TrEMBL record:
CDD domains: NTP_transferase_like_1 (cd06422). Transmembrane segments: none annotated. This is Nucleotidyl transferase. One of its GO terms (molecular function) is nucleotidyltransferase activity. SUPFAM superfamilies: Nucleotide-diphospho-sugar transferases (SSF53448).
Amino acid sequence: MRAMILAAGRGERMRPLTDTTPKPLLEVAGQPLIGWQLQRLAAAGAETVVINTAWLGEQIEAVVGDGRAWGVCVHYSREPEGALDTGGGIREALPLLGDGLFWVVNGDVWSDYPLGQLPRTLSAAAHLVLVDNPAHHPDGDFALDDEGRVGTGGGRRLTFAGIGAFHPRLWWDCRRGRFPLAPLLRDAARRGELSGEHWAGAWSDIGTPERLEQLRREVATGAAPVPE
């Protein structure tokens, strides 16, 4: 099974922490965030992991290396300065991800969602893990119906967790370059090509220094679970 960790972003909202340290190397419970992602992907059955890098990417490569310490084989998709955003970053990495289904995990999320639950086969173009809307994103991203279809219309709206399974065909009409993932997902939802599931467990988008410190406190006190 192949997977990708999105790790190329500048982390503007995390400044000044990310002025000298890439966000995936910020630590929680004694390990960098990207280390937790690698550990969990390996436990879920991922054998090859692609990491995209841009801002201070050499630091990520120095820490992660070939991934052997986490039981996976790591390849790097090195992006130009400024990075290629989420959609463009995955598009650039497709030659390393192969022709089949692959998993994607944002490098800055913390969750106890069991990654081994992600599909290994898929009739849709993508399958998204959705969570309850956090305070900083109250309107959500997508609606999820009782049959597991993801749409853009009415109904209960949820937030994309930054965790999902994807087929390369989602990018077949995309040229290389910088672009976000969200418009591709909305188009797929309108075509009926998007499935999903609701995860009601722990999830945090570590987007600001305040959220990082809150997560560290919650993990230290046992209020937030340490992902296995």
